[in-house]
Amino acid sequence: MANSNPMVDAYAAGQSLWLDYIQRSLLNGDLQALIKNDQVMGLTSNPAIFEQAIAKSDEYDSTIAAIGGDASISDLEVFNQLAIEDIQGAADAFADVYKQTNAVDGYVSLEVTPDLAHDANGTVAMGLDLNKRVNRPNLMIKVPGTEAGVKAFEELTAQGVNVNVTLLFSVQRYLAIANAYIKGLERRVAAGHKVDDMASVASFFVSRVDTEVDKALDAKGTDAAKALKGKIAIANAKVAYGHFANLFGSDQFAKLREAGARPQRLLWASTGTKNPDYSDVLYVEELIGPETVNTLPPKTMDAFRDHGDGTARLANGLNVAYQQLSELNDLGILLNNITDALETAGIESFAEAFDRLLKSIAEKRKRLAS
C-alpha cells in the first residue's frame, strides 16, 4: 500500500494504538491531531510520565501557584488536582472515540499512588475516589498487578470501575488478573448490575523482559543462549495472548458475553526498544493482532509511523514461542525469577519517580510563593 500509515494499518488489523504520554501542552491540539490523523485510540499515564511533565516543565507553575499557596493542601493533593485536570482534558479529547467505538476505545488511564502496590484496600479506596473525582466514563483507573492488585482489581471491577492493570511481566500473574476480571464481572451480574459499558486492559510489559533475559543469556555465552537473545519477551507475550484467546473464548466467559461483557484486552506496554542492536519498532510490529492494545511512547510512535509495518503477526508462531521458553528453561534461566524481580523493580521505579515529583511540587510551591 503506497503512502499508507502503519498506525492506521495496525488499527485495521485489530489493534488499538494508545499514546503512553501526557503533558498539558499536548491538550492544545496535538492530541486531537494524533486522534484524527493516526487513529490514536487512547492514552496512558504513570508516575514517571507525570514527573517528566510537572517537575521538568513550567507548564503547571501557574496552577501550582494558584492552589499551592494554601498550606492546608498537601503536596499529594496538589498533584491530584494537576493530574485530574490533565486526565479530564485528555478524556474529553477522546470522548468522540469512546462514543464511536461503543465504549471499546477512547480510554485515558490514571494510576493510584505507588505506595499502595501491596495494599488492596487502600488501592480500592483510592481507585473509587479518583474515579469519582475525574468523573468521566472513559477513565481507566490504573492498578499494579501485584498479588494485592489482583484482589483490588476484582473488587473495583465488581463496583463498576474500568481498570488498567499494569506492571504485568509473567504469564501466571496475567492469568490471575484475567480470572479476577471474570470473577468481578460475575459478581456484578449476580448483583443485578450491567456490564455492557465496562472495559479493562491487562498491561503486559515487553522490552524490559528482554533487557534482563538477555543479560542472563550473555552470561551463559553459548550459541544456544545467543540464539535466544531478543526473542523471549515476544515469546512470553505470545503465550499470554494464547491464554487470552482460550480464556475469553471459553464457555465461562460466553455467559458474561451474553450479558454484554467484553474481553479484557491485553495491552502491550514497555514497547520502546531499549537495545540499540534491535529494530526500534520490534515490539510494535511483532505484537500486532486482533483485540489488543499497544501503548507507545512518542519516540516509538514516531518511528512506527515513519517506517513500521502494520501487518498482524501476533497469532503466528505460538508453538515456536513455547519452544523458545522451553529452551530458556533448559539453559537454567528461570523466567519466573526474572519477572518477579521486574515487578519489584517496576514498583520501586514508579515510587522513586513519584517521590521526586512530590519533592518538586514542594519546591515549586515555596519558590512560587516567594
Layout: helices, strands, pairs:
Elements: H1 6-12, E1 15-20, H2 30-38, E2 40-44, H3 47-55, H4 61-68, H5 75-93, H6 95-100, E3 108-111, H7 120-134, E4 139-144, H8 147-158, E5 163-168, H9 171-190, E6 200-205, H10 207-220, H11 223-226, H12 232-248, H13 251-258, E7 265-269, H14 282-285, E8 292-296, H15 298-307, H16 318-330, H17 335-369
Parallel strand pairs: 1-2, 1-8, 3-4, 4-5, 5-6, 6-7, 7-8
Helix pairs in contact: 3-17, 4-17, 5-17, 7-8, 8-9, 9-12, 10-17, 12-16
List keywords for this structure.
single chain; 370 residues; alpha/beta; TIM Barrel; eight-stranded parallel beta sheet
Structural overview:
It is a single chain. By secondary structure, the protein is α/β, with parallel strands linked by helices. Helix content is 57%, strand content 12%. It contains 17 helices and eight strands. The chain has helices at residues 6-12, 30-38, 47-55, 61-68, 75-93, 95-100, 120-134, 147-158, 171-190, 207-220, 223-226, 232-248, 251-258, 282-285, 298-307, 318-330, 335-369, and strands spanning 15-20, 40-44, 108-111, 139-144, 163-168, 200-205, 265-269, 292-296. An eight-stranded parallel sheet has the order 2-1-8-7-6-5-4-3. Helix 7 crosses helix 8 (147-158) and helix 12 (232-248) crosses helix 16. The longest helix is centred in the C-terminal third of the chain and has 35 residues, at 335-369. The chain is globular, with a radius of gyration of 20 Å. The model has no long low-confidence stretch (mean pLDDT 96).
